[in-house]
Amino acid sequence: MAAALQEGGVYVSAMLLRTYRELGLSDTEAMLLLQIMVYMEADKNDFPTPEELAERMGLTVREIGHILGRMMKDDFLTIDEYVDRDTGMQAERYNWTGWLLKAAALSSDQKRETRRAERQPAKLQAASSSDLFSVFEQEFGRLLSPIECETISGWLDHDRYTEEIIRFALKEAVFAGKLSLRYIDRILIEWSRNRVTNAEEARAHAQKFRGGRG
Questions:
Q1: What is the pTM of this model?
Q2: Domain CATH number, residue 28
Q3: What dihedral do alpha carbons 47, 53, 55, 60 form, nearest 10°?
Q4: Is 112 part of a structural domain of the chain?
Q5: Residue 170: which residues within 8 A CB-CB, separation 6 or more?
Q6: Per-position pLDDT tens, the chain of length 214
Q7: Does residue 128 lie in a domain region?
């Protein structure tokens, strides 16, 4: 156990593991990139040969060459040239910054989409409320007062009446010739008591009420 811990390890961002398939990498390609990390960080070998990678991956040198070529073509992996401080000789090393940048961009896009999706219901609710206000103003033939707007918003947000039910209650008020929010509120309360939840049930209840009244 102690010997295993002394072997050292490699830090891999969870972001890389979460996004590699969405970035178009296969399991084999992702594992090859991870093995390159192991060579560089744990084995202190900045530029493992295709033969070394093939042996560790259980693939042929040709397969390794094909995968490396594909990942360099798609900018997941590059080869950097530098001067070795110890030898003064020019050397090469792998660089997987491209993979990190692609994963970070995808992760950022996904978070942005999540935030947009979370905000969408609120936007739809606001748009729906705005449309509902317009319907009332059209039927009333005037602009709604702030108190009237607050009352309608309360039906939606506090009383949890659906927009469909509110619209139908407005139609009933128009039919009765009583264009006031107080009258519409009484209709909504009556329907709520009778467990009316949609326009069809409201229509049936209204017809029954009219028939009984007649």
A1: 0.53
A2: 1.10.10.10
A3: -130
A4: no
A5: 135, 136, 139, 184
A6: 555 555 667 888 888 999 999 999 999 999 999 999 999 999 999 999 999 999 999 999 999 999 999 999 999 999 999 998 888 899 999 998 999 999 999 888 887 777 776 665 555 455 555 688 888 888 888 888 888 888 888 898 888 888 888 998 999 889 888 888 999 999 999 888 888 888 788 888 777 665 544 4
A7: no
